[in-house]
Each structure stands twice: as structure tokens, then as C-alpha cells.
Specification:
The complex is a heterodimer of chains A (244) and B (298).
Chain A: H1 2-16, H2 19-35, H3 46-75, H4 78-83, H5 90-118, H6 126-153, H7 158-173, H8 185-191, H9 195-208, H10 214-243
Chain B: E1 2-13, E2 16-27, E3 31-35, H1 42-49, E4 57-62, H2 70-73, E5 76-79, H3 91-99, H4 108-114, H5 130-142, E6 148-152, H6 160-175, E7 179-183, H7 187-193, E8 196-201, E9 204-209, H8 211-217, E10 221-226, H9 232-237, E11 239-241, E12 244-249, H10 252-262, E13 267-273, H11 276-297
Parallel strand pairs in B: 3-7, 3-8, 5-6, 6-7
Antiparallel strand pairs in B: 1-2, 1-4, 8-9, 10-12, 10-13, 11-12
Classes of the chains: A mainly alpha (244), B alpha/beta (298).
Chain lengths: 244, 298
């Protein structure tokens, strides 16, 4: 526990003192919601759901940049090698990184909710808000696994570009910026297969107090398992390369 | 008591062999210096000891355990060759972070005092000079109150005063029963800290012994004098180098006595102790000469 707190404190300080790194990931979702999502008609069903979409956008963004870019940079950082000489397993550090990412993700989601109060034509009630926050913690798992996979696949220089290259199309294909109905037919057909769309379906279900379609539940479970296996393979590969 | 050991350890990176059959023991109260040219395998040996690399063959143990296990790591401190810290953090935050991993860490105020970090302790590492970063790295190495410290070029970048302070501190650590293994390019540092030397070249151990052992293997003292009319004794026993007659010997007292007894004229007599760097340089010259000779024979 002592080690978990030490790692969490370290990561929090490193991130909070580096606004160039955290500001875009925390502020962009609320900003994009204010520009696009907030203008949805209050009569339309998507008005409230847009809040969920941008909340998912916030969680996935944090996972991509904090894990994807962060891990890729850490892997080339001598300080990370030195940390491996401390008497600790990888668990406290991994859990601390996950904890800090969830804190940042929830902050970004709360900013989206705040933006919906200021700029939106509709808002969520307290139950919808709590359900959405809970779902955001749940979808942080597959999103983080995808981010970690990116972090172990790319080098520090390539990771930011690669994160943008994967994250932005995934956000669009997953109907996080536009409602599914507004997507071109071919994109709408692809959309249902993307992990971001499946995450969005969970967020929308939380807002609507319904259960997502079984296909989306199975789809996200399959993606989560797939990402977890990919991460295990990539971590082992990295371990052999760096510490073999 | 053996705190760390290498038994027939070899390490290869693809087709390149970095270490070949290294055998080494570090005992309690011993300061071992690993010497050798760049690329000799010194840092590879240390990274294996830290658990950051796995040997291709052979066995490495720290306090009887495999390096990298939390129990083994709880008893060691490490200063790697390259140190870079998150620029957003201060030395105090780094020391608090390191200390959280150990059962009985050293008092942070004591570390601040020992490594002269008083003026730096609450400043962010960003903007620190190389020497200042090195002092932080050394303080971190001792934060966990280790029994064995592994130091890869520990004072690289430190000023003369910092190097001297570190030597005093390291000697005290060893005198108190700690064990130390280091690599360094500063001969004065090696002579002032190490009581045992292992020289590696091309991954192979080429010398292993105490500092006096190694020095005496190549002659401890250097005798030099001028003689315009040398007699048979001087001509037989000394070599003419740049107008001076010279001899390298382990018993300079006897050599000088015999010289005086011979009655042959000399002036400007100098007896100087050989330093380790000179001894190693002679060793390398001999090795190169042997290799050239073998090449010529083949």
C-alpha cells in the first residue's frame, strides 16, 4: 500500500506539473462538446447522449495519451530502468498509473458535465451522472489496455503521432463526435464493430438507464480480452528486449 | 560473508559476446573495482547484478538470491551510469519516493547533509547540472540503507571536492561493513576506494587481485637518475630513457643500496611509487605486444 501511494504521488506530481501534457487531454473533450455536442437540439434524443459520447472520448483520450505516449516515453527513460532496481514488483506502479489515469479521466468527464450545464441545452440528472461516471470507470479498462498496447508498440518519438492516428479515426468511427444516424452509411456499418462505439453504447445505456445490446456487450468483452492478451504479449516482448 | 557472486557468467547480445566466464565474489567489507576499456563488459556485469539483464549462461547471486527479486533488491542500492530524473520533481520528492520501498531507509536529512544537497533539495531537478544530478543519484543509491551498493562510474561529472567527499563516504560505508562494487575511469578514485580489482577486457577477466597485488606484479617503484659515465652495474641493471637511467622494482631500498655500494657516479636520484594507471598501462602494452607477436608468428 505504501508503495502504491508513493507511485501514485509520483505520477500525479509528474503529470500535474506538466500542463502541456495533461491540459489538452482534460480540456479538449469539454471544449469539443461545447463546440459540437452542446448545439444538439434538446428535443432530439442525441442531446443527452452527446454528453455520454464526449465522456467516452475523454476516457479514451486519457488512456491513449497517458498510457500510450507515457509508457512509450518511460520505456526509453533511464529513470524507469532505475525504478526497476527498487524492491517492488510491477504491481504498485501499474495500479498507481491506472488510478491516476482514472482520476484524470473522471476530471475530464466532470468538465464535460460542467460544460453541458453551461453551454448545453440539456443536462443529466444526478442518477444519470452517477451511472455515467461508473461506466466511465468500467470502460477505462479496455481503453487503458489499448493505450498500454500502443505504449509497448511504439517508440517515444512515434507514439504521439501514432496515438493521434489511431485515436481520432476511432473517435469518429465510434460515433463519439456525431450521432450514429448522422454518419455516412458505410461509416455507420463499420462503426458498430469499433471498440469506441461499443464503449459509447455502454455510456448511452447508462444515461438512458437501459442495458446495451448483447452484441455490444460481447463485442466489448472480446475487445477487452483481445487487448489484454496483446498487452501480455507486448510486455513480455519488451521485457525480453530491455531486460533479457 | 559473500554478498554477491558471479559464477562462470557469460552474456551475449546476438552474436556479440559481452562477458565470457566471469567469476567474481564480493564480500562484506570489500570494495571491488571493475576496470577495463570502453565496451569491455563492465556495465553489462553490473546490469546483470542489478537484475536488469539476464546472463546467457552461469549464475549470479546477491545475498544468495537471484538478482531482481524484491528480497535481493531490498538490500542493495544502485547508481546507474546514466541518470536522468523527471524534471518536475525535487531531490526531496525523489528521496521520499525511493525510501518508501525500503523497510529501514536512511534519514533523508542525513542524506541531504552527506551529499551536500542542502541548497538543491526542494528545487525541481530541471536545470540541475550534471554534477548536481550525480549527487542526487548517489543519495538515492544510499536511501534504502543498503548492504551492497552498485555504482557505475559514480563520480562521473562531479567536481574534485565532490569526488573527494564521495571517496570519504564510500570508505566509511565499507569500513562499517558495507560492500561496494564500482566501475570508474578515475584512477585516484579507484585507488582511494577499492581494495580489490578485477580487470575485464573483451568480456574476459584478465586480472584479479588487491591493489598492492596488481601494482607489485608490475613493480611498485620507479627509480630514475642521471649518470654521465655509467659503470657496468648501471649498464647491466638500468635502462637508459631520455638521458636518465631507469628501473622498475618492488624493492627500491635494496636497489638504491646496491647502486651506492657499486660506487658508480650518479646524480638527481628519484624514487617514485607507481600508480595503478601506470601498472594497467604497462599491462596493456604487454598484451598488445604479445598479440602482435602471436599475429606475426601466425
Amino acid at each position: 500500500m505504501k508503495q502504491f501511494f508513493a507511485h501514485a504521488k509520483l505520477h500525479l506530481k509528474r503529470l500535474l506539473r506538466n500542463p502541456a501534457f495533461w491540459a489538452p487531454t482534460i480540456l479538449f473533450p469539454a471544449m469539443f462538446y461545447s463546440f459540437f455536442g452542446a448545439s444538439m437540439s434538446p428535443d432530439g434524443a442525441y442531446s443527452q447522449l452527446a454528453i455520454g459520447s464526449f465522456a467516452v472520448y475523454a476516457v479514451v483520450g486519457i488512456a491513449f495519451y497517458q498510457f500510450g505516449v507515457g509508457i512509450a516515453q518511460d520505456r526509453e527513460d533511464p529513470f524507469d530502468s532505475w525504478m526497476h532496481t527498487l524492491p517492488a514488483s510491477a504491481l504498485p506502479n501499474g495500479l498507481a498509473q491506472m488510478f491516476v489515469a482514472i482520476l484524470f479521466a473522471l476530471s475530464a468527464v466532470l468538465l464535460v458535465l460542467a460544460a453541458s450545464h453551461v453551454f448545453g441545452k440539456t443536462t443529466l440528472d444526478i442518477n444519470q451522472t452517477l451511472r455515467l461516471l461508473g461506466i466511465c470507470v468500467v470502460i477505462a479498462l479496455p481503453a487503458s489496455l489499448l493505450g498500454i498496447a500502443l505504449g509497448y508498440s511504439a517508440n517515444a518519438k512515434a507514439a504521439p503521432a501514432l496515438a493521434n492516428l489511431i485515436f481520432l479515426p476511432l473517435a469518429f468511427l465510434g460515433a463519439l463526435w456525431l450521432p450514429p444516424i448522422a454518419l455516412p452509411k458505410i461509416i455507420a456499418d463499420i462503426s458498430v464493430w469499433t471498440p469506441t462505439r461499443q464503449m459509447a453504447e455502454f455510456a448511452w445505456a447508462a444515461i438512458g438507464n437501459t442495458i446495451p445490446d448483447t452484441n455490444f456487450m460481447l463485442g466489448l468483452a472480446a475487445y477487452t480480452t483481445g487487448f489484454a492478451l496483446l498487452v501480455m504479449w507486448l510486455v513480455n516482448r519488451d521485457k525480453k528486449k530491455r531486460f533479457g | 560473508m559473500i554478498v554477491a557472486s558471479f559464477s562462470n557468467v557469460s552474456k551475449s547480445f546476438g552474436k556479440n559476446s559481452a562477458l565470457k566466464d566471469l567469476n567474481l565474489e564480493v564480500k562484506k567489507g570489500q570494495a571491488v573495482a571493475l576496470l577495463g576499456p570502453n565496451g569491455a563488459g563492465k556495465s553489462t556485469a553490473l546490469t546483470i547484478l542489478q537484475g536488469l539483464r539476464q546472463p546467457t549462461t552461469g549464475t549470479v547471486r546477491i545475498f544468495g538470491q537471484k538478482p531482481g527479486t524484491p528480497d535481493a533488491m531490498a538490500r542493495i542500492g544502485v547508481t546507474p551510469q546514466t541518470t536522468d530524473f523527471p524534471p518536475q520533481l525535487s531531490p526531496r520528492e525523489l528521496l521520499e519516493f525511493a525510501s518508501a520501498h525500503f523497510q529501514r531507509p536512511r534519514n533523508i536529512d542525513q542524506l541531504i547533509e552527506t551529499f551536500a544537497l542542502n541548497t538543491l533539495i526542494d528545487r525541481r531537478v530541471q536545470g540541475f547540472s550534471g554534477g548536481e544530478r550525480r549527487r542526487v543519484a548517489l543519495a538515492l543509491c544510499f536511501a534504502g540503507n543498503p548492504e551492497l551498493v552498485i555504482l557505475d562510474e559514480p563520480t562521473s561529472g562531479l567536481d574534485a571536492a565532490g569526488q573527494k567527499d564521495f571517496s570519504i563516504m564510500a570508505n566509511q560505508f565499507v569500513a562499517d561493513g558495507g560492500a561496494l562494487i564500482l566501475t570508474s575511469h578515475y584512477w585516484l578514485e579507484i585507488e582511494s576506494i577499492a581494495n580489490h580489482i578485477v580487470m575485464i577486457d573483451n568480456g574476459i577477466t584478465v586480472m584479479d587481485g588487491t591493489v598492492p597485488d596488481i601494482k607489485s606484479a608490475f613493480g611498485l617503484n620507479h627509480i630514475s637518475f642521471f649518470s654521465a659515465t655509467p659503470g657496468p652495474h648501471i649498464k647491466k641493471n638500468y635502462q637508459l630513457e631520455n638521458e636518465n637511467w631507469e628501473l622498475v622494482t618492488n624493492d627500491s631500498d635494496d636497489a638504491v643500496r646496491t647502486l651506492i655500494k657499486s660506487g658508480e657516479p650518479f646524480s638527481n636520484l628519484k624514487v617514485t611509487p607507481r600508480d595503478l594507471e601506470e601498472a594497467i598501462a604497462i599491462y596493456r602494452q604487454k598484451q598488445t605486444a604479445n598479440a602482435d607477436q602471436n599475429g606475426a608468428v601466425q
